[in-house]
Design a protein that fits this description.
With 268 residues, the chain is mainly α. The protein folds into two domains: 65 residues; 185 residues, f41 fragment of flagellin, N-terminal domain (Up-down Bundle). It is built from six helices and four strands. The strands form two sheets. The chain has a two-stranded antiparallel sheet. A two-stranded antiparallel ribbon has the order 3-4. It is rod-shaped. The relative contact order is 0.17.
């Protein structure tokens, strides 16, 4: 049937052309953004999952930063402990020198002068800080080591003043006192070794925690990529398809509209 009021061919062609235009625009958006999902219309379920994975990735990054900062804290702490070890080594040397029976009272007084200065230096270490947080004053810290906060590590308590300095309150004014101090220094050095071992163990565990966070982040990113990132090869094929359909749809719409002209010629 030939009709003037209704051009169903043009209506159908217009519908198909609009559909092709929408799909072509969607392909262009995907290729230009690099994402398969640019709005909830593209994939509502996939978008919801991707949002959760993206949040997990951000939390993992934040946790990894916290672990890295904690390792820096421990490295700085170990530097302070190493300095304390150097001080104790010199104190042990002074205590040994003061036990020499050939030393005069003045010699012992000179040794003790330096000895007391080194005790003061050990005491001063107690005030060392990392970003205003005490390093060796017994400050207790707990580091979160998993992105969901379910795992953590409480760092070993390091207190140089309480564990070491407070035991060295004597002097070297006599060989007997020097002998006593020598024994106390040996005990202090042993205690300091334990503190450094504690520090090293914490650094080791945090390093492994940081490695695990890096692996988890890689896996999360890969999973998120499979959901949200565009498959360039596939989408390029779709772009070509919709581009051809758009061009053919435009041509067919023009053809359908031109068919009314033939009807006019029948009645002219």
């Amino acid at each position: 049937m030939i009709s003037i009021n209704t051009n169903s061919a043009a209506t159908t062609a217009s519908y198909n052309l609009n559909k092709s235009n929408v799909n072509l625009q969607r392909s262009l958006n995907r290729l230009s953004s690099g994402f398969r999902i640019n709005s909830s219309l593209d994939d509502a379920g996939g978008l919801a999952v991707s949002m959760k994975l993206s949040a997990s990735i951000r939390r993992t990054d934040a946790t990894a930063t916290g672990v890295s900062n904690a390792i820096s804290y421990l490295e700085t702490q170990d530097g302070v402990l190493k300095s304390a070890g150097n001080v104790l080594t010199r104190m042990a040397e002074l205590a040994s020198l003061a036990q020499d029976v050939t030393k005069s009272t003045d010699d012992l007084a000179n040794y003790d002068l330096e000895y007391q200065s080194l005790i003061a230096q050990l005491t001063a270490l107690d005030s060392e800080t990392f970003n205003s947080i005490g390093l060796v004053d017994g400050t207790a810290l707990t580091v979160i080591t998993s992105e969901d906060g379910s795992q953590n590590l409480t760092l070993g308590t390091i207190d140089v003043d309480g564990d070491i300095t407070s035991t060295l309150t004597g002097d070297l004014t006599s060989t007997a006192n020097a002998a006593t101090e020598a024994g106390l220094i040996d005990t202090a050095i042993t205690s300091l070794g334990l503190l450094r071992a504690t520090n090293g163990a914490d650094q080791s565990r945090l390093t492994f925690a940081g490695d695990l966070l890096a692996v988890n982040r890689t896996n999360l990113e890969a999973a998120n990529s499979r959901i949200i990132d565009v498959d360039v090869a596939y989408e390029s094929t779709q772009l070509a398809r919709w581009s051809i359909l758009q061009q053919s749809g435009t041509a067919m719409l023009a053809q359908a509209n031109a068919s009314t002209e033939s009807i006019l010629r029948l009645v002219s």
